[in-house]
Amino acid sequence: MPVPGRTVFVGTKEFMVRETGLPDAPPIVLIHGWVYDSIETFSKLVPYLADRFRVIMIDQRNYGRSSRLYEDYEIDTAADETAAVMDVLDVRQATVLGYSMGGMVAQALARRHPGHVARVVLAATAAKPMRRPVIDAAGMAALRVLWKVGNLEGARASHYVLRHAGAYGPEHDRWLWDVMLARDSELNLRALRAIKRFDSRKWVGQLIPPVLVIIPTRDQIIFPSAQYELAGLARDPVVLELDARHEAVFSHAGTIADAVVEFAEKS
Questions:
Q1: Fewest C-beta atoms under 10 Å: which of 86, 132, 134, 187?
Q2: 99 and 55 in contact (C-beta within 8 Å)?
Q3: How do residues 179-218 score in pLDDT, each as one tens digit?
Q4: How far apart are CA 52 and CA 24, in angstroms?
Q5: Is 143 exposed, middle or buried (0-12, 13-18, 19+ CB in 10 A)?
């Protein structure tokens, strides 16, 4: 997706921002999930939104061309950084769409910086995604071992998932391999630890902006039961159920875009 980008500074930290769509249209901020940056995550979705919104994609810390910071952090940290980037861009009262881990950042953003968020879309995400201590700890240990061996196996798995979901065709193979092999496994694990500590169950129902919850009912990464719990905790949410896996942002991009446009344009 040929969307040009530029970097902006928040203090000493640098963040990649990509914009497309209509400059004078209402803004929509897209927050990507774990492992994939904004271009990889939203390549199928953005073309459906670009004729209705000023589309803004922000690479979170440690992803894409944003700063790589070898320190532990919280989802709240990423939310504060997103708000600070929006300040630099002079963006207020945006529709904010968070996918997977990005949905957790969007929840925290709506709580901590409600003036930045007019509406919030929470897609394939949860209020408390990791709740099985032994199994989750074992999974994180296995990932650490796998990534210590090398990025190749992780790249192969990611490549298979994206190709299987129809996100990219064979003409993009070289680019896809390049970006996957460039990932830093230690930084991915730091993000995963932030996900593990995230828990919005006590406050997500108090969010001020209207909420749209998008649930892929066959999600193999964030269990649908956790996503339905989020919908049950949110205050009067609009709920969209999709017969899809976690890759719904690729496989059902048109359906998601239709729901987002309808939700964002409600009076």
A1: 134
A2: no
A3: 777 778 788 889 999 999 999 999 999 999 999 999 999 9
A4: 10
A5: middle
Domain borders along the chain are 5-128+199-264
Class of domain 5-128+199-264: alpha beta
Q: Is 6 helix (H, G, I), strand (E, B) or coil?
A: strand
Place of tokens 């995400």: 125
How far apart (Å, rounded) are the C-alpha atoms in residues 158 and 179? Answer: 11
CA distances from 36 to 67, 129, 132, 180, 237 (A): 15, 18, 24, 8, 27
Tokens coding 28: 């929509």
The span from the CA of 87 to the CA of 49, in Å, is 22
Residue type for position 267? S
For the segment 129-156, what is each residue's pLDDT rounded down to a tens digit? 986 665 565 555 555 555 555 566 666 7
Q: What are phi and psi of 130, to 5 degrees?
A: -120, 110
**β-pairing verdict for 211-216 and 94-99:** unpaired
Whole-angstrom CA distances from 235 to 31, 42, 66, 137, 204 are 21, 27, 33, 32, 8
Average of per-residue pLDDT across 148-168: 68
Residue 82 token pair: 């997103």
